[in-house]
Amino acid sequence: MEWLDDDHWLCPQTAEVLSYTILSPNHLVREMITQWCKDRSIKLAEPRERIMDESKITEADKVCLFSLLKKMFSSSISDQKRAARELRRLTRYQPSFRALFVESKDAISRSLEPLVSPAGNGSAAHLLLDPELQEDLITLVHNISVHEKNKRPIARNPIVVPLLIETLKTGLTIQTKSNAAASLFTLATFDCNKVIIGNLGVFKPLIDLVEEGHPVAMKDVLLAIYRLCENRENRVKAVQDGAVRVLVKKIMEEEGTGPVVSMLLTVLTLLSSQQQAVEEMGELGAVPWLLRMVRTTNNETNMVNCSAILLNICRRDRNKRKEMWEAEIANRTISRVAVSRNPSASQNGNAILEKLRKHIIQ
C-alpha cells in the first residue's frame, strides 16, 4: 500500500509498469492464514475495514442511483453539482455502486448529460459548465471504470471516450484533464479498448499535455500513453503525432534525474521499437545523451531503458553504429553496461556490443 500511496507505478522488483494498481482482498490467502493461526492457537487481529462484496447490489442502491441520475437533468446547476458530488463519492467508496452502473441501462450516458452538448456528439459544453461539476463527473467515469465488467461497455459507449479526449484538450482545470487521462489508462486495460481509444485521435492531446509538463497531470498522462502503446498500431499513431520529439525534449529539460525522467524513458523505450521513432531520435542527437545518461545515472531502471533504446537504435539505424562504436572506444560505456549486475541491462549491453562488432567486421 505504501508503495502505491507514494505514487510509484513501476514494480519494485522487475521495474515493469504495474498493469493494475487497485488493490483487491485475497480471500484464499486470508483463509489460509486464519487456519494456520487457528492450528497454533494464535489470535488473528480483525481487519480494520469491512470487505464489501461488489455483487451485492441492494434495492436501496438502485433507488439512490436513479434518484441522483434524475437530478442530472435538473435545470438547477446546484442540484446537478450535489448529485455529481454524491455519485463521485459513492462510486469511490462503495463497490456495489460501481457494479450497478453496468447493470443499469443508460446510467453512464445519463450521468454525463451535463457535459454533453445538445448535438450529442460527445463534445464538452464548456461554456455553460461549472469547473467543479466537470471534475466530479470526469472523476466519476474513472471510478466506475475501475470495475472490470464496466470497462468494455464504457469504452463502447459513443459518448464516453470522445468526451474524455475532448476534456484532455479543453478541460477547465488541470486536475480534470489528469482525471480524464487516468480514466483512459484504466479503460485501456483491455486490448479491444486500446484499439477503440487509439482510433479516436487520443495521442495528440495526450502528447500536448506532456509538452505542457504540468506536474499534476504528467503521471496519469504518461501512464495512459504507455498502456495504449502496448498495442503496436497505437505506437505508430503516437510516433506520427509527435511523441518522440516531445519525450526527448522533456528528458533533456529534466537533465536525466527524477521520477518523471524514469516515466518518460519507459514510454520512449516502448516507442523505440518503431523505425520512425529511431530515425527521429537520430535526428535529435539522442545517442550522445543516452550514453551520457548511462554513464551518470544511479537508477537501474533508467540504465535498463537507456540501453534498450540504444539497442533499438543500433538494430534499426546502421548510420549510428559507427558513432556508437567510436563512443565505445573513447568511454567503454556499453562494456560497463554489459557487466552490470542488472540482468536486463547486461543483456542489452552485450547485444549492442555484438551488433557493433559485426558492423566493424563488415
Protein described:
The protein has 362 residues and is mainly α. The protein folds into 2 domains: 58-241, Leucine-rich Repeat Variant, CATH 1.25.10.10; 244-362, Leucine-rich Repeat Variant, CATH 1.25.10. It has 22 helices and no strands. It has helices spanning 2-5, 27-39, 59-71, 77-93, 95-103, 107-111, 131-145, 151-156, 160-170, 174-187, 191-198, 203-212, 215-228, 232-240, 243-254, 259-271, 275-283, 286-296, 300-316, 318-331, 333-338, 343-361. α18 (286-296) runs antiparallel to α19. It is globular, with a radius of gyration of 24 Å. The N and C termini lie far apart (53 Å).
Short précis:
The protein is mainly α and 362 residues long. It has 22 helices and no strands. Residues 119-127 have low confidence and may be disordered.
Based on the coordinates given, report the CATH architecture of the largest domain.
Answer: Alpha Horseshoe
The fraction of residues assigned to DSSP E strands is: under 5%
CATH homologous superfamily placement of the largest domain: Leucine-rich Repeat Variant
SS element count, helices: 22
Q: Give Rg in angstroms.
A: 24 Å
How many angstroms does the end-to-end distance come to? Answer: 53 Å
User: Roughly how much helix do the residues carry, as a percent range?
Assistant: 55-70%
Major sheet, described briefly? Answer: none
Structural class: mainly alpha
Oligomer: single chain
The count of DSSP E runs of length 2 or more, i.e. the number of strands, is 0
Shape field? globular
**What fold name goes in the CATH topology slot of the largest domain?**
Leucine-rich Repeat Variant
Sketch the topology as an H/E string, one letter per element.
HHHHHHHHHHHHHHHHHHHHHH
CATH class of the largest domain: Mainly Alpha
Which segments are poorly predicted (pLDDT under 50) over 5 or more consecutive residues?
119-127
Question: Averaged pLDDT, please?
Answer: 86
